[in-house]
Amino acid sequence: MKSGGGVLFIAAAQLVVGLSLLGIYEGYKKYYFSTFVDEEGNALPSKESNLVSSYESPLDFRSPMGFSYYLAIVNNIFAVFGLAGVINAQRELIIAFFGYNAAQMVIAFHYFVDLCTDVGVKYDGEPSKLSSFEQAAAAFIFLNFVLSVCATFFAIKAMDEIKAKQREDYNRLTVLSDTLQFEADQP
């Protein structure tokens, strides 16, 4: 398959993006628990901060940074599927990789827009470095969106290659079948 090199490149790049998102998340978690919680632990909570009390927590999957952790996990799983599928010629793994990337185009774009919006939203009690972590995560999410678009392009190309190969195999089998059925004329 000619598009196998493109799939390998995209899967490897998505694995790097997923690991980078994991690094950003872990950096934010370390900052949140070692610096922010210690600094803000004695402050009296306001009504506004009570409304968004768990929003900045890295352990809450509804928070932008918490969601990036789960997105990184799923991203890395399917990147490994893409790598293993091409290296071991496992069509099912490649199809799973392409299916994930079709969904990832929508998820990554929506999450990118959400993170860009969250960077501009400030509230009482917000960690001071939250915006910088959100900006870094947004950059990698956008890169993942671009990679998913490229993966979809390669998926379409790969499907055309598979159809052409199936057509060639069918033509070869029909010629072989005609050759085997040929009976010489008897005088």
Walk me through the structure.
- The protein is an all-alpha fold and 187 residues long.
- Helix content is 79%, strand content 0%.
- It is built from five helices and no strands.
- 28% of the residues are buried.
Quick recap of the structure?
The chain is 79% helix and 0% strand. It has 187 residues and is mostly helical.
Shape: rod-shaped
Percent helix, as a range, is over 70%
Low-pLDDT windows of residues: 47-52
Computed CA radius of gyration, to the nearest angstrom? 25 Å
Q: Could you tell me the number of beta strands?
A: 0
- Provide the residue-averaged pLDDT: 77
The secondary structure category is mainly alpha
Biggest sheet features: none
- What proportion strand? under 5%
Topology (elements, then pairings):
Elements: H1 4-40, H2 47-51, H3 64-87, H4 91-120, H5 130-181
Helix pairs in contact: 1-3, 1-5, 3-4, 4-5
Keywords:
187 residues, mainly alpha, rod-shaped, 5 helices
